[in-house]
Amino acid sequence: CIADCQISHNRAATSGGGIYLAAGEYKLMLLKDCLFTDNSAGRDGGGVSCNWQTKAQLSNCTLADNRVTSLLGRGFGGGLFVGYSSDVTLINSIVWDNISNEKGAQLAVTDGPPYASTLHVTYSDIGPLDPNTAQKMGLDLVFVIDSSSSMLNAMTAVRAAATQIAGAAAVQAR
After folding, report:
1. Which of 55, 92, 117, 137 is least surrounded by CB atoms within 10 angstroms?
2. Nearest to residue 50, comparing CAs of 8, 108, 106, 9?
3. For residues 105 and 132, is the Cβ–Cβ distance under 8 A?
4. Per-residue pLDDT tens over the stretch 40-86
5. What is the spatial distance between Cα 39 and Cα 10, in angstroms, rounded to a whole number?
6. 22 within 8 A of 86, measured Cβ to Cβ
7. What is the pTM of this model?
8. CA distance linking residue 51 with residue 101, whole number of Å
9. How far apart are CA 61 and CA 48, in angstroms?
10. pLDDT digit string (tens) for 101-145?
């Protein structure tokens, strides 16, 4: 498990600018409460690249302002790439304002045999859909919160994450 991390300003010549995950058939990798920003890769997964039968879960993560900048014109998944028979779950996360020079500015998943992959997205905010507006809009976070007592733990976690993101943005602005 990788938890409570900020992974920023990294570069990879090929895959996984922020982090590259590759695994055997039965391992589950967990990324929890992590912030991936301003990373870049040459081929896939500017923020996170999940390859070769990776079973991973990204929970309460933010992938923002990452990019894939292939010189060969084949860039996939500015925010998150899932490929080569991987099975990934993205839950309660934000994937926003990432850029790819070919396909999948936010997310890219391989779908053809023999290496079809799966991405399950639940309770997450993905966007913007038009990569031409990504640079103009910047990172904009919107939270919709149920204020009933059943959501108290979740509200506390959202407040903590928002405070952490705002603090990181303030540090970068200096």
Report:
1. 137
2. 108
3. no
4. 998 888 899 998 888 999 999 999 999 998 776 677 888 898 888 88
5. 5
6. no
7. 0.71
8. 20
9. 11
10. 877 788 888 876 677 888 888 988 888 755 454 444 444 343 444
